[in-house]
C-alpha cells in the first residue's frame, strides 16, 4: 500500500519547479494557475528568487504547494492516478493542504489562496521578535515536554512538531525558547538549535491565525476527498470534509504529530511512502518506519521512475 505525502515549510528553495516546468506543459499549467489565483508571478520568484522573498511565509507556503501539485499533476497526466495507486495521503503542516488538493478536496486556485491567507495570518499573529522555535535533536516527545515545562516559567513553550524519534520542535515566547536551548542537555537532549523562522508556529500564540483560518475555511470549506487523509493534529484517518475543516483550524495552534501519523499509516498497511515535491519527509519516515520504502519525487526522471515502479 502506498501513501502519498507532501512536505511543509522549509522545503522551499530557489529554482524549485523550474526543471519540471521546462519539461512538462502540465506542470507549467499548475504554476500559471497559481500565479493567476494569487495575482502574483510566484513561479518567477520560485525560479529566480531572491531567496529571502521566497522564504517569506506568505510566499513559501503556496510555492511549496504549487511545486508538489505540479509533480502530482505530471504523474496523473502520465497515467499514475493518485486515487487509484494510493491508499491515503498526508502532509506536514501546510502540506496537509497540498494533500487535500491532490485528493480533490480543494481546487488548485483555492488552495493557493487559502495558503496565502494562512501564511499572512501566521506571520501577523505575533510581532516579529516576540516568538521563536527550536529543534531538539536526540530527544523524544517525552523529553521535549519535560523541557518545555521547565523552560516555560509562565510563558508559552510548547511541543510544536513531533517529527521523528530523534527530532522534536518547541515553539513559544522567545525568552522561553532561549531557556529551553540553554537547558536542553540537562533534559537529555543531544542538541538544541534555534530555527531561522519568523514566527512561533503551531503553538497557542497562533490563536489569531486560527481565527483567521476559521473565517477563510468557512468561506472555502473542503469538499469530499477521494483518498483518506491522516490529519496532523489527530494522527488519525479522516474521511469527512466537515471534520477536516475543523482540524485545519486546530492545526494552526496544534502539534504536528508527524511521527504518530506515519506509524498510524504503517499500522493501516502502508509499506511505501511517496513524497511529492521534496526530500524532507523521507529521511524522517526512514527513522520512524525503517522497514518501509520511501521515494522522493521531484524531477521528470523521478516521475518516470516511479511510474515504472508502481
Between the first and last Cα atoms, what is the distance in angstroms? Answer: 10 Å
The helix content, as a percent range, equals 40-55%
Largest sheet: 6 strands, mixed
Per DSSP, the total helix count is: 15
Strand order, main sheet: write it out.
8-7-2-1-9-10
Would you report the number of β strands? 10
Work out the strand percent. 15-25%
Which regions are unreliable across 5 or more consecutive residues at pLDDT < 50? none
Q: What is the averaged pLDDT score?
A: 97
Instruction: Tell me the overall shape.
Output: globular
Radius of gyration: 18 Å
- Give the topology string: H per helix, E per strand: EHHHHHHEHHEHEEHEHEEHHEHEH
How would the blueprint of this fold be written?
Layout (H helix, E strand, L loop, with lengths): L1 E5 L11 H6 L1 H14 L3 H7 L2 H5 L1 H21 L4 H4 E6 L3 H8 L5 H17 L6 E7 L3 H12 L4 E8 L2 E7 H10 L7 E4 L12 H13 L9 E2 L6 E2 L2 H13 L4 H10 L4 E5 L4 H8 L4 E5 L2 H10 L1
Helix pairs in contact: 2-5, 2-8, 5-7, 5-8, 8-11, 9-10, 11-12
Describe this entry's structure for a reader.
Helix 11 (207-219) packs antiparallel against helix 12 (241-253). Helix content is 51%, strand content 16%. The strands form two sheets. It has a six-stranded mixed sheet with strand order 8-7-2-1-9-10, sandwiched between helices. The protein has a four-stranded antiparallel sheet with strand order 4-5-3-6. By secondary structure, it is α/β, with parallel strands linked by helices.
Amino acid at each position: 500500500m502506498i501513501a502519498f505525502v507532501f512536505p511543509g515549510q522549509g522545503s522551499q528553495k530557489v529554482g524549485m519547479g523550474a526543471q519540471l516546468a521546462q519539461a512538462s506543459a502540465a506542470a507549467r499549467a499548475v504554476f500559471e494557475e497559481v500565479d493567476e489565483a494569487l495575482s502574483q508571478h510566484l513561479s518567477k520568484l520560485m525560479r529566480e528568487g531572491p531567496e529571502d522573498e521566497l522564504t517569506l511565509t506568505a510566499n513559501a507556503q503556496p510555492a511549496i504547494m504549487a511545486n508538489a501539485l505540479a509533480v502530482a499533476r505530471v504523474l496523473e497526466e502520465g497515467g499514475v492516478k493518485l486515487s487509484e495507486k494510493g491508499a491515503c495521503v498526508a502532509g506536514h503542516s501546510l502540506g496537509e493542504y497540498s494533500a487535500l488538493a491532490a485528493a480533490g478536496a480543494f481546487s488548485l486556485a483555492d488552495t493557493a489562496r487559502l495558503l496565502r491567507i494562512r501564511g499572512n495570518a501566521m506571520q501577523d499573529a505575533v510581532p516579529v521578535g516576540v516568538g521563536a522555535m527550536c529543534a531538539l535533536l536526540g530527544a523524544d516527545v517525552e523529553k521535549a515536554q519535560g523541557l518545555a515545562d521547565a523552560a516555560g516559567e509562565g510563558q508559552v513553550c510548547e511541543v510544536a512538531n513531533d517529527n521523528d524519534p530523534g527530532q522534536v520542535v518547541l515553539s513559544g515566547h522567545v525568552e522561553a525558547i532561549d531557556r529551553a536551548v540553554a537547558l536542553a542537555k540537562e533534559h537529555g537532549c543531544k542538541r538544541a538549535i534555534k530555527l531561522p523562522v519568523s514566527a512561533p508556529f503551531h503553538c497557542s500564540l497562533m490563536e489569531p491565525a486560527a481565527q483567521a483560518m476559521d473565517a477563510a475555511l468557512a468561506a472555502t470549506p473542503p469538499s469530499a476527498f477521494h483518498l483518506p487523509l491522516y490529519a496532523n493534529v489527530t494522527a488519525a484517518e479522516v474521511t469527512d470534509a466537515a471534520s477536516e475543516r475543523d482540524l485545519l483550524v486546530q492545526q494552526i495552534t496544534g502539534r504536528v504529530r508527524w511521527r504518530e501519523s506515519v506509524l498510524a499509516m504503517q499500522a493501516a498497511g502502508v509499506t511505501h511512502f511517496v513524497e511529492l515535491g521534496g526530500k524532507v519527509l523521507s529521511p524522517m519516515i526512514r527513522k520512524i518506519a525503517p522497514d518501509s520504502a520511501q521515494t522522493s519525487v521531484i524531477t521528470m526522471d523521478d516521475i518516470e521512475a516511479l511510474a515504472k515502479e508502481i
